[in-house]
Amino acid sequence: MKTYIQAISYFLPEKVITNEEIVQEFPEWTIEKIESKIGIKERHVTSEKETALDLAVHAANKLFTEYSIDKKCIDFLIFCTQSPDYILPTSACIIQEKIGLSTSIGAIDINQGCSGWIYGLSIAKGLIAGKISKNVLLLTAETYSKYIHPKDKGNKTIFGDGAAATLISKDGFAEIGNFCLGTDGKGAPNLILKTGGARYRKPLNDLEFDEFGNPKSSDNLFMNGAEILNYTLDIMPNLASETILKNKLKITDINLHVYHQPNKYISTLQQKKLKIPESQYYCFYEKVGNTVSSTIPIAIKEAINEGLIRKGDNILSIAQGLGYSWGGIVLYF
């Protein structure tokens, strides 16, 4: 059974952090340096009492309004986040009540990072192909800003909070093709927040600073940038080629590449390593930053709005995330 994306919307929190504000806080940096290397001009962040769940609710309601969707048609809800309101209960159950969905639906959380949207699509496709559901609402939302140390200028510059809502159904504007998925748990320590879970419930209070003044703490988000970069550049070529092969296509059959986009530096390296023409490689991070699991749906939405995706186009989307976890998909418009 064929499955399709029927609708995409996204929501960003109101508060914005500009590069001017970053430079005021970290005067050793310049606006020109941030924009030339990172490529991000501003990022949205949540307020103290605003959560990923709240962003997901806003994104879902925006989707309903924008596409005049009858909530009664939705029979399964998937919520992808690593920033849940609570350890338990399941956040998707809370969202079901908040957005007024039927009590006769399934609702689950999945804990995935940057590859989360592709994994969510794969689950949704399976639910529809297995005749378990007809209309699956996939919500991706993240608030990494809450876990970043105030003095962590690198991560503070890169990550932005945001949410996307995607409706997957038996008809729509983009057919969901075949997936390529992968996992390597050896990379887990390279992007991690150690405390707060069952293994380390209490803060470890082990904050230290390196010779450049960068903080490292088990109680805050830690990213080994060099290792993440190496992993990204190693995995992406095979992921792209295997995804294309699984869909029985050639690289020349792809009209537009819309990948997970961490920042300008990594995205440019990806584009050059895969030898993709700039005109076929779409990025949208300047005004949103790295929104983790929502980068691809936000970028696809904007590419559609800009008229860069047309009927008959084949779109390749691939993502690499913490864990390590990666995935690829071709969307047929």
How does this model look, in words?
This protein has a 9-stranded mixed beta sheet, with helices on both faces. Strands 2-3 form a two-stranded antiparallel ribbon. Strands 9-12 form a two-stranded antiparallel sheet. Helices cover 30% and strands 23% of the residues. By secondary structure, the chain is an alpha+beta fold. It has helices at residues 19-25, 31-37, 52-67, 91-98, 116-129, 153-158, 225-246, 264-273, 295-305; strands at 4-11, 16-18, 42-44, 76-80, 106-110, 136-142, 162-169, 174-183, 191-192, 208-209, 215-216, 222-223, 256-257, 314-321, 325-332. The model has no long low-confidence stretch (mean pLDDT 97). The radius of gyration is 19 Å and the shape is globular. Strand 10 and strand 11 form a beta hairpin. It folds into 2 domains: 4-171, Thiolase/Chalcone synthase (Peroxisomal Thiolase, Chain A, domain 1), CATH 3.40.47.10; 178-332, Thiolase/Chalcone synthase (Peroxisomal Thiolase, Chain A, domain 1).
Tell me briefly what this model is.
This protein is of the alpha+beta class. Helices cover 30% and strands 23% of the residues.
Number of H/I helices: 9
- Residue share in helix: 25-40%
Distance between the termini: 17 Å
Using the coordinates shown, work out and report the CATH topology of the largest domain. Answer: Peroxisomal Thiolase, Chain A, domain 1
Please list the strands of the largest sheet in the order they lie side by side: 5-4-6-7-1-8-15-14-13
- Main beta-sheet strand count, sense and barrel state: 9 strands, mixed
The fourth-level CATH homologous superfamily of the largest domain is Thiolase/Chalcone synthase
**CATH structural class of the largest domain:** Alpha Beta
Tell me what the CATH architecture of the largest domain is: 3-Layer(aba) Sandwich
**What integer value in Å does the Rg equal?**
19 Å
Which H/E pattern describes the elements? EEHHEHEHEHEHEEEEEEHEHHEE
Number of strands: 15
Which structural category do the helix and sheet elements fall into?
A: alpha+beta
Report strand %. 15-25%
Domain module count: 2
Shape: globular
